[in-house]
Every structure is written in structure tokens, then in C-alpha cells.
Amino acid sequence: MPSYDFDLFVIGGGSAGVRCARIAAGHGARVGIAESRFWGGTCVNVGCVPKKIMVQAAEYGQWAADAGAFGWDIENRGHDWSVLREARDREVARLNGIYRRLLEGNGARVFEAHARFLDAHTLQVGEERVTAERIVIAVGGRPIRPDLPGIDCVMISDDLFTLEKRPEKIIIVGGGYIGVEFAGLLHALGSEVVLTYRQRWPLRGFDQELREGLAEALTAQGIKINPGETITGFGAAGDGRIVELASGRVLEADAVLVAVGREPATQGLGLEEAGVAVDARGAVAVDEDHVTSVPHIYAIGDVTDRLNLTPMATAVGHALADTLFGGRPRRASYDNVPKAVFSSPPIGSVGLTEEEAAARGPTDIYLTRFTPMRHTISKREGRRSLMKVVVDAKTDRLLGIHMLGEDAPEILQGFAVAVVNGLTKAQLDATIGIHPTAAEEFVTLRSPARRAGDTQDEGGREEV
Ligand code: NDP
């Protein structure tokens, strides 16, 4: 048996890689991990964490503005971007340190360097050459820069976190997670926002009624939406930026954010030296156990482009470490993964959408729309909630639960347990509500709003 420097070497210190390395080291493996940019990866540094802090900043402004309706006399002299930026960056730096210390505390050897394959067991890590019996690729993804004229003069999501000042007017291209999240938060912080996307509705893949509800809510708040628009190019005009649309229109703003998805960050890794195969999108191809085309090399997280969400990446990294070194072979399930979009209002979602369920068979749809109590008083526009339960009409099993409305991500985390565990609508109904809350609606929806997916029924809704 050849002897290697490490039992496991992990390339990439993001959510997937750090979890895998930490747990493997905790199981007693000799682990090395390399990260060339920042510990914690996209989520901690240029994703979920700093974004959520900015969402919270936006909410404070709205609460301060609404507080008058509840009797508070608050003088709001505006938002100081630099204070937010400093607080956010401090928190990110704190988390960076925690990630690194967690690894070292578990006995992993940490390399702050770029790693690339020299062969299937050998890596060049900065100045050092190391060998490992098993190698995990966990290098994540990066924002796509579409091949369009002028693309270099616009921002991608990473740039949002280094902005010195908030743009007074911004055009956001892309109706996905990042597009709608930043449209809501920048608008609430005071920017004029134009959101442009190529579909008729934002958030393709989410329940159609939620997509429509979100588009309505964004418009009601004052965000200008341009659906069904294709971009042909970008340009600079003085200090400003322009976006050219296929319709011939030209939009102008102080800044443009392009958020049209992310791609696996496999460049410069030397995958070909190791014989690791990639698919057409450049994602590392893996089997159900996250094994690549080389049996002792694995890939986890966004670089596999399976389900690009942090909790999925950490779950997969943990399961792989337990499988390889913990004597506990297992797979993290990709079924019924709950999702949240921190839009304004936010979305929480688990399981099948109405459209997906209806395509499989008769489905009962339970639905409620209401103005949350807070906003019957504040009169704030664009805050109506929509809650939907998707039920298999034959078995009474819960297939999906979806919410657009305040606290939706918090509420859905708990209700996801019901869908993941195959509970029935009757079991939901047997749970007493917590009053007065919005969440109680999920256990008090007595009669279906409609039956979808029935051949007799014309009411099934179409994905647009
Ligand atoms: P998404 O995949 O969510 O959305 C991409 C958007 O860009 C879609 O509206 C898509 O339209 C559009 N698009 C794609 N290609 C083009 C193109 N060539 N021209 C014009 N529009 C285009 O990507 P994001 O960048 O918003 O986010 C990246 C990923 O990061 C997410 O998919 C998610 O995995 C993760 N993320 C998760 C968050 C969360 O969990 N809350 C928050 C932020 C990001 P179409 O629908 O037509 O393809």
C-alpha cells in the first residue's frame, strides 16, 4: 500500500468542504483542506449571511416607518450604508474565524492556498506538493457573466458586498433568487429598482401562484418589473450604466446587477490531470454517492450543480465524512428539501408545487390569502400573504406546503417536517393552532379551494 500524506484532502473551504473535513478529522482521519479565497465560501462571505443581514437592515427601515401607526413617534433620518457595511463585514469576519478554528480544533491541517491536481493522488497546494488517499472537490460555484457586449461594466452578486455606497437607481437582470432578494432589499433601503427578467413571472420552478403573488407584491411596493425581456447588451453612459433590451428599449441607471445563475468553479483545478470528468455545464459529474469518474475522488456542493443550497451542501459533506471514516455509510436525501427566498415578502417552500402534483394525479389545493394583522394597521402595500397546502387527493398525504408572506422561511422549517415524513392532511388538522399567528392557518384550512390534476377538472394551473 502506498503511503499518503493525508487520508483525505478537501479542496475548498465552503459549506460542503469545511463540514466534510471537520467531521472526517473528528472521526480520526488525517485531513488537509485548502482554501484560496475565504473560509466559509460563498454562503458566509458573498451569499446567504451578508445578504440576510442586508435583508434585516431593510426590514428595520420598514418597521420604523410603520411604527407610527402603532403610536410610536420615530424620527427616521435615513439609512447609513457605511454603518450597515461595517456591521455586516464584522460579522462575516467573525464567522470566517470560527470556520477556520473549527477545522483546526478538529485536527485538520489548514492550507490558505490554491490547490490543483498533478495526478489522481497528488495536489500542488500553494508551494507544497501533497498526496492523499482520497480527495474531495468542494470548490463551489461563481456567478455567471453572460457573453454579452459591455458585460464588464456591470456588477455580479459578489460586487454587491463591496459597494461603497448604495446606488440611487439600479437595474437588476434575472428573476431568480438573487434578483428578487436584492430587488426587495435595495428598494427598502431607498434605491429605485428596476427588475428585468425573461420569463413572464419570477422564480421559475416555484409554485405558480406564489410567483404571481410575488410579482404583484413587488409591483405594489414600487419596484418596477420588466417581465419577458431579453437583454442584448450593456454599456456605460458617464457615471451611469445602460441596459439594452431586445425590444429596442434602453434602460438607464447608476448601476446594473446581473444575476442570471451560477456555474461550477472548476477552472484551474487540473481535473484532466486526475482524470475527473465534467458534464456539459462544467459541473463535476458524480454518482448517487458523490463519487466522480475516479473512484477515490469525490465532489460535493455547488461544484456538482445538483441542488445549490448551503444546507444541502453541508448535509452531503457530513454524510460523506461519516461514510468514509465514521463507519456509518449513508446518503443525504435530495427529496423534499425545503427552500426559502428572502424576497419581500419572503417565500418558504417544501415539496411539490401545485403544478408538479397535478401532473401526477388528483390533488387537493388548500389555500388562503390574507393581510397580516400588522399590516391591517400599518396599511403597508405589497404585504399580503398566501399559504398553500398541496394534498394527494387519493391518500390524503401532504405533497407540498408553500408560503409567500412575512416569516415564511421560519414557518416552513417546521412544516417541512410534515412533508418530509409523509404526514397526512388529517394529521395536520389534528394539530391545534397557535393563536394569533399566521402559521396557524396551515392547521386550520378546512376545505379545498379546488381539485387540480383531475382529468374531469379544467382548473389545473399551468407553469408559465
Ligand atoms: P437562479 O438560477 O435562481 O436564477 C437565474 C435567473 O436568471 C432566472 O430568472 C433565469 O431565467 C435568468 N437567466 C438565466 N440565464 C439567463 C440569460 N442568459 N439571460 C437572461 N436571464 C437569464 O440564479 P441566481 O443567480 O439568482 O442565484 C444563483 C443560485 O444561488 C440559486 O439558483 C440558488 O441555488 C442560490 N441562491 C440561493 C438563495 C437562497 O437559498 N435563498 C439565495 C441566493 C442564491 P430562466 O428562469 O428563464 O432560466
From TrEMBL:
<keyword id="KW-1015">Disulfide bond</keyword>
<keyword id="KW-0274">FAD</keyword>
<comment type="similarity">
    <text>Belongs to the class-I pyridine nucleotide-disulfide oxidoreductase family.</text>
</comment>
<dbReference type="GO" id="GO:0050660">
    <property type="term" value="F:flavin adenine dinucleotide binding"/>
</dbReference>
<dbReference type="GO" id="GO:0034599">
    <property type="term" value="P:cellular response to oxidative stress"/>
</dbReference>
<dbReference type="InterPro" id="IPR016156">
    <property type="entry name" value="FAD/NAD-linked_Rdtase_dimer_sf"/>
</dbReference>
<dbReference type="GO" id="GO:0005829">
    <property type="term" value="C:cytosol"/>
</dbReference>
<dbReference type="InterPro" id="IPR001100">
    <property type="entry name" value="Pyr_nuc-diS_OxRdtase"/>
</dbReference>
<dbReference type="InterPro" id="IPR004099">
    <property type="entry name" value="Pyr_nucl-diS_OxRdtase_dimer"/>
</dbReference>
<feature type="disulfide bond" description="Redox-active">
    <location>
        <begin position="43"/>
        <end position="48"/>
    </location>
</feature>
<dbReference type="InterPro" id="IPR036188">
    <property type="entry name" value="FAD/NAD-bd_sf"/>
</dbReference>
<dbReference type="GO" id="GO:0045454">
    <property type="term" value="P:cell redox homeostasis"/>
</dbReference>
<feature type="domain" description="FAD/NAD(P)-binding">
    <location>
        <begin position="6"/>
        <end position="315"/>
    </location>
</feature>
<feature type="binding site">
    <location>
        <position position="261"/>
    </location>
    <ligand>
        <name>NAD(+)</name>
    </ligand>
</feature>
<feature type="active site" description="Proton acceptor">
    <location>
        <position position="435"/>
    </location>
</feature>
<feature type="binding site">
    <location>
        <begin position="174"/>
        <end position="181"/>
    </location>
    <ligand>
        <name>NAD(+)</name>
    </ligand>
</feature>
<dbReference type="Pfam" id="PF07992">
    <property type="entry name" value="Pyr_redox_2"/>
</dbReference>
<keyword id="KW-0285">Flavoprotein</keyword>
<keyword id="KW-0520">NAD</keyword>
<feature type="binding site">
    <location>
        <position position="302"/>
    </location>
    <ligand>
        <name>FAD</name>
    </ligand>
</feature>
<keyword id="KW-0676">Redox-active center</keyword>
<protein>
    <submittedName>
        <fullName>Glutathione-disulfide reductase</fullName>
        <ecNumber>1.8.1.7</ecNumber>
    </submittedName>
</protein>
<dbReference type="GO" id="GO:0006749">
    <property type="term" value="P:glutathione metabolic process"/>
</dbReference>
<feature type="domain" description="Pyridine nucleotide-disulphide oxidoreductase dimerisation">
    <location>
        <begin position="337"/>
        <end position="445"/>
    </location>
</feature>
<feature type="binding site">
    <location>
        <position position="52"/>
    </location>
    <ligand>
        <name>FAD</name>
    </ligand>
</feature>
<dbReference type="InterPro" id="IPR046952">
    <property type="entry name" value="GSHR/TRXR-like"/>
</dbReference>
<dbReference type="Pfam" id="PF02852">
    <property type="entry name" value="Pyr_redox_dim"/>
</dbReference>
<keyword id="KW-0560">Oxidoreductase</keyword>
<dbReference type="InterPro" id="IPR023753">
    <property type="entry name" value="FAD/NAD-binding_dom"/>
</dbReference>
<keyword id="KW-0547">Nucleotide-binding</keyword>
<dbReference type="InterPro" id="IPR012999">
    <property type="entry name" value="Pyr_OxRdtase_I_AS"/>
</dbReference>
<dbReference type="GO" id="GO:0004362">
    <property type="term" value="F:glutathione-disulfide reductase (NADPH) activity"/>
</dbReference>
